[in-house]
Design brief:
Rossmann fold, alpha+beta, Methionyl-tRNA Fmet Formyltransferase, Chain A, domain 2, six-stranded antiparallel beta sheet, 299 residues, 8 helices
Length: 299
Amino acid sequence: MGSPQFAADVLAGIVEKHQVVCVVTQPDTVAGRGHQMCMSAVKQFALAHDIPVLQPAKISLEAEKLREFQPDIIVTCAFGQILRQSVLDAAPHGVINVHGSLLPKYRGAAPVQWSVINGDKTTGVTILQTELGLDCGPMICKEEIPIEPAITGGELLHAMVPYAVKALLTALTQIEKGTAKFEPQDHAQATMAPMLNKEMARFDWQKPARVLANLVRGVNPWPVAWFVLNEEPVKVYQATAVEMTAQAGAVVQCDAKNGLLIGCGEGALRIDSLQVPGKKIMAGKDFCNGRNLRGVILK
């Protein structure tokens, strides 16, 4: 059970070693200017490999359809639906989940992105038994992953794939052999990684520059960090924290040589790559060419 590209990449690792009798993914959606119906990455992979596909709006209401496939075990990975007990009981070995953090840290929808936003040095993958509740079941195995200083949330998710596949295949082998050890989580140590949204990606210039630089990385490629200039949103794809003293929100530099530098609550943020409405992504220096914004105070 899964939907995005990350889940499709993990599925590709599963089919190398196991028989996948069915794939469950989110319903097709309408997207783009042409309002075309779009399939999830997992559905595309499944169709290409002749794997049956289910796309219920709520899989928990259709658990009997799962039982018809007689699965030994169910794997979830970025599926996006809450499972009821009827689904957890649909296979003899229950449901296990591929989660992009070292649990109990970062339970929730966006663990990979929040690890970057918070400036962590390491993260990982946890394979856990799914129980009623949010990422709270016992853990089977983990893989630790270093977070490179300049990596984005999207890049880290892609880099996590081989670790996730390795951990998942290990867990499946252990469960099949009856050697898996299920370690309870310390719920007192749990932290949350809530779903991302556009409003949380907006710059607060009172925050330190390093915090904003991490935000830029963490919400790239979605929802993308942004600030308002001349009453229009400016998206920021790359930025660098600079040590200096400057007024929060003040444009310190804006020229084709030095680029766009904006003061923060601590230090300043150099905008290396940005996008204004109706234009392509451009370098900060190119944006500054012909613009005189020095001294402007951003909110």
